[in-house]
């Protein structure tokens, strides 16, 4: 799994989420990239990104997040950047930041994150962003980059939805999601967010609570899919009814991504 991770100086959690088996072939590598935001990308990072020839960027952040940390691009970047205007997290915060309200312990942090995941598949602006994501995968050539702020919650859900819709085995779906916890330098990634989280919510938050907010757990993703199953009976029905991803669109995506 670590072979799919690319290490950057100012970009966290950057990795290829292709390469998994599906019932009709294997997801191609080098086409599906995911990460955190690129606001702190270095010149070396941007040079490495240029080599990936990314033609489509799907930004799942909200307007306020984009304003605070505009993503940097290399000089030759001529790709399309897609996002839905508005706040994808509901209250101008990334999910892990939103979950931090009133939190002091790791158990409280995990509970808050679990509750957020139950609602995340139905947040209106995020739904619009996910619709743009799947439309791009079905219609645009070349490599794509999917990202939010930390590249773990909104991005993790989106990548897992794609994997599930293309028939990637459940174990691989979960392994890709959990790779956030070991990809790159997780300690540096967590430390980079700790100060801002404590500044927002107070110094009483424990180190363990910070780690819980900045990590992912299997129960988080299971909660999101349980909410989908309860309301729609499965991922395919959810995708068709909420995201406009019907059988024809799934086939179009598979034709571009599965070899």
TrEMBL record:
GO terms for molecular function: phosphoprotein phosphatase activity. This is Tyrosine-protein phosphatase. It comes from Sphingomonas lycopersici. InterPro entries: Prot-tyrosine_phosphatase-like (IPR029021), Tyr/Ser_Pase_IphP-type (IPR026893), Tyr_Pase_AS (IPR016130). Belongs to the protein-tyrosine phosphatase family.
